[in-house]
Amino acid sequence: MSTVLSASPFTLEFAFHALFASAETGMADPSKTGGTSADIFPTKEKTTNDASLKFTPPPDSASESLILVPRHAAAGPPPYEDVVVRKDSSKSFLHLDGMDALLTSMGKPGRYQVLIFLALASCMFPVVFNDLCTIFNTLPPERSTCCVPSTAWNSSSHGSSHLSSLTPPASVCNASVAMSAVVYGGNSTCDLLDGLALHSPEAHQLCESTMEHHFHDPATTSIISEWNLVCGRYWLVSFATTIYFLGVMTGSMFFGHLADRVGRLPCIMACYVGYLPFGIALAYVQHYWIFLVLRFFVGFFIQGIQSVCFVLLMEFCSPRFREIVGGLEGLIGGLAVGALSGVSYWWQDWRAIQLCLTLPSILALSKYCFLRESLRWQMVQGKVAEAKKTIEFIFRWNKLAADPSLDDKLQDMSDALVAEQQLEADYTWLDCFRSPRMRKYTLAQSFMWFTVLFVTYGISFSINELSGNLYLNLIIGQFSLRS
What we know:
Structural class: mainly alpha
Strand content: 5-15%
Low-confidence stretches: 1-96, 154-178
Number of strands: 5
Number of helices: 20
Shape: elongated
Order of helices and strands: HHHEEHHHHEEHHEHHHHHHHHHHH
Radius of gyration: 29 Å
Largest sheet: 3 strands, antiparallel
Distance between the termini: 25 Å
Strand order of the largest sheet: 4-3-5
Helix content: 55-70%
């Protein structure tokens, strides 16, 4: 149960994702929910510093969506007299409709869209590797033994009955001066080992220095055998998993805001650059507490990679293919599970596994040569010239002719997106709980995400307790959960 509970921080992070997704969905098109915009969010008066823009509050209509329509001035700057709201029953915001049309015009999908899918969806390999390598890093031995001086055992503190079934391993201990105790697996005598710290600290230290861990395969090692995490120290195994997912939760919140400020592409590259040294250092760490620090930062950067890559992928994908692309990314995750099982089967030393799973991510740095910044982010930031270069780059890749009126359209869409950003600037996560309908959506989705991920990671981290082949069980279980 402790390994199941250790995944809880990760489920909370996804609950936050669901919470904000609920808000965004409700704002985009309240008519799909059978309610009004006021049912989703309370109406707020919006103002802007731009004197050339004015906003009309959206009407509360259950059957009509809203379109922001830019109206050009008769002559001269600024490009808009105002931004008015027009009713339409079939479309969402005009700038979103224009952005979707632009994405579709750049390929349905084209060569560049296929390339960017493979480049961004491949982030699932390091994500899955680090999420699930815990299964092999914390693999428990079948039996652990240690030897202590026979004088450390006495009938008053331990009872002579415990000693009758203990035999010394001849390769380690001299039978005339020491006894062997099973401290993990089989008929555990953890009470004896833990008692040594009180009755004979010297004997306890000797036990730790002579401890032997017996796995099914003699070449297998884990952090349990590395730092003798047995008996009274066994809680440190689950604690390492908790620390990792604490880093995941922290990275999710931090990089979500950072990607909005500096852009998606720089954030992705920074996460890879941050992840690689920490991931490689994990393979050489010599102290448990340093191991915890490194695992925290690995989780921190890994979640940044996953979150921002997914956002950039969706922002480059036309609406028609978004559901398909999301499903295919899940299948890529299934392939990553297969790769993890293969690597762990071939190299059963936890340090070798860590190194083999981290080094391939060096290739991800080459993505900077052909990935481009999100068009939507560039538009929101008013970087129209950079957005035009991105579009022309994609058109060249897909061997398509660019629209000659592209400049005017981009400026229109950028102004509308900036206007929407100003409209929504005052909303916070607290707005997800202000109205009854929004509270219902928020709580329902948070509960569903929490339950799904609690079960998913609970099964994953307990997979070694099932009978049969561990590696095959992991592949079957993960494909079942992801399908």
